[in-house]
Amino acid sequence: MTSPMLDRQGAPAAPHLALAADRVSEQFGAGAPVLENVSLTVEHGEFVAIVGPSGCGKTTLLRIIQGLEAATSGAVTTRSRTGEAPRMSYVFQRASLLPWYTVRDNVAFGVTLRAGNGIYGSKRERDNAVADLLALTGLTKYADFYPDQISGGMQQRVNVARALAVRPDVLLLDEPLSALDALTRERLQIDVARILEQVGTTGILVTHDIREAVFLSDRIAVMAAHPGRTRAIVDVDFPRPRTPEFQHSTELAQLERGIWEMLH
Ligand SMILES: Nc1ncnc2c1ncn2[C@@H]1O[C@H](COP(=O)(O)OP(=O)(O)OP(=O)(O)O)[C@@H](O)[C@H]1O
């Protein structure tokens, strides 16, 4: 993951790229191939969604990108805007919060974890960072609550705030909103769009929800299964952040329909 980014010819790739997955294949033991020659590039500040049928290897691809899983063949290369290895953070479907910590302390935990990495120098800087993250994610009023005293949507906000505490160059989101009810989910999609715009981080989102993918992303990788492969890369050519009206617009519905047809 720390190797310099190379293109297919072996020359340094364009510095505007945050990530390049090049012909990534994965097979676990003697099982059927899970991923086959998946290639994907993501520019700095870009938000890319991955959609596809269950079992096509979306989570596996995300885990390979994060370095938690080694690809059988192919390579993933990453770099930050400064040219160094990027910091990545991961948001899962279920918020894994510390139940005995308040909302504030759960976010502070993410900040403290990184204090030793030189991101935050002093205690005051850490306290300010926590306050900023709480404000950014709409949690200031809930700072002294415990996780079991807030809704699932609020818990997921804490999860996002904690993930952002490391000031990630790349934020990986694996079905972050799928456990939420439809209304909460729509509201959080709008907030996630605003938060991403404010922090300017690069993002990769795995989702089953095509509408969510269209609403949030610049491009969508549509995958096919058995083995998992990229079927198409779809551009979502609308300025970000998207307005709440865009969520129910004809343009979004048309793109959603086109992707749905690809998947069925
Ligand atoms: N560590 C592992 N060992 C063996 N098989 C695995 C491992 N991880 C994933 N798989 C298999 O790889 C395939 C793809 O799994 P993955 O979770 O990546 O798919 P997905 O597209 O994210 O699915 P879903 O949309 O249902 O979450 C599945 O058949 C899964 O059982």
Q: Which structural class best describes the helix and strand composition? A: alpha/beta
* Low-pLDDT runs: 1-12
Helix content: 25-40%
At the first level of CATH, the class of the largest domain is Alpha Beta
Q: Quick one: overall form?
A: globular
**Rg (C-alpha, Å):** 18 Å
End-to-end distance, in Å?
A: 35 Å
User: So what's the oligomer here?
Assistant: single chain
- Major sheet characteristics: 6 strands, mixed
SSE pattern: EEEHEEHHHEHEHEEH
Enumerate the strands of the largest sheet in spatial order, edge to edge or round the barrel.
5-6-7-3-8-9
Beta strands, count: 9
Question: If you average the pLDDT, what whole number results?
Answer: 87
Please indicate the percent range of residues in DSSP E strands (runs of 2 or more). Answer: 15-25%
For the record, the CATH architecture of the largest domain stands as 3-Layer(aba) Sandwich
CATH H-tier superfamily of the largest domain = P-loop containing nucleotide triphosphate hydrolases
Question: Would you kindly provide a written description of the structure presented here, covering whatever features stand out?
Answer:
By secondary structure, this protein is α/β, with parallel strands linked by helices. It has two domains: 183 residues, 3-Layer(aba) Sandwich (Rossmann fold); 69 residues, no CATH class. The protein has seven helices and nine strands; from the N terminus they run βββαββαααβαβαββα. The chain has a six-stranded mixed β-sheet, with helices on both faces. Strands 2-1-4 form a three-stranded antiparallel β-sheet, with helices on one face. β6, α5 and β7 form a beta-alpha-beta unit. α2 packs parallel to α4 and α6 crosses α7. The longest helix is centred in the last third of the chain and has 18 residues. The protein is globular, with a radius of gyration of 18 Å. The two termini are 35 Å apart. The site of adenosine-5'-triphosphate has 11 residues, from α1.
